[in-house]
Design brief:
With 144 residues, the protein is mainly alpha-helical. It has helices at 2-7, 9-14, 35-52, 56-74, 83-87, 92-99, 115-120; strands spanning 126-130, 136-140.
């Protein structure tokens, strides 16, 4: 759904663009969305729940994990030992690239499936560069 929000000009302009007003995302920005985007997310999650056949006991921790991962992706911090950064290649740096002005047409994959960006030609490679004043900066490398 996120990919479609970026490729459909009407949906991007009138719905998803509100979320991208934040060029430098921060944790609470994960949920800074147009109300219709919330409706679309809820419908998508409901369909995924019904199709997967998950029980309520499985669904609750899974959706809690999604919320925590979403906040982590938007937090703008590259923390040592962060389990999400270890397990998933689409992490805070990946999402920072997506929110930068040149990145809004790339790195659409959400939470757990960055393979879709490579398959759909929307992958934008990046590197983490250590800043002299401390911390890291996600910098775009040349497009594949």
């Amino acid at each position: 759904m996120h990919h479609y929000m970026h490729t459909n000009k009407f949906l991007y302009r009138h719905v998803h663009a509100q979320h991208h007003k934040l060029v430098a995302p921060y944790a609470i920005a994960a949920f800074y969305n147009h109300p219709m985007e919330g409706v679309f997310d809820t419908i998508g999650a409901s369909i995924a729940f019904l199709v997967s056949g998950m029980t309520a006991r499985t669904t609750i921790p899974f959706f809690c994990l999604i919320v925590v991962k979403t906040v982590d992706d938007h937090c703008g911090l590259w923390l040592p030992g962060n389990v999400f950064h270890i397990l998933f290649p689409n992490n805070t740096a990946f999402h920072d690239i997506h929110h930068q002005l040149h990145g809004s047409k790339y790195t659409f994959s959400q939470r757990f499936f960055p393979i879709w960006d490579k398959l759909l030609g929307t992958h934008m490679p990046y590197d983490l560069v250590k800043r002299p004043e401390g911390g890291f900066e996600a910098r775009v490398l040349s497009k594949d």
